[in-house]
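Running this now, will post back.
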Amino acid sequence: MSEEDNDRKLVLLTDFIEQRARKDSEIKYYEEQLKDIERRLFFLRKEHDLTTTIIDIITRERVYDVKEELEKKMMDDNNPLLIKSKNTDIDNDST
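Update: finished.
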């Protein structure tokens, strides 16, 4: 084998070693990107599920106006809160 053949083999070997190093760093980069995408995808799916649940609740009319319900309860004569409140006022006036 001539010296020129040995130089070519050496050049080819170094080219392959450099190529392998580039591929290793590229693999590492894409693995990190994949982890980030999977994390984002996880949260996006959770948000999608929550939005779907909210839509289902609204379409089934299971949501009610809290203020409206509280007003109804306050207007109810048998409301223990109102009775207690009235009794408390009487108790406070007598002291």
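The two ends are 117 Å apart (CA to CA). More later if anyone needs it.
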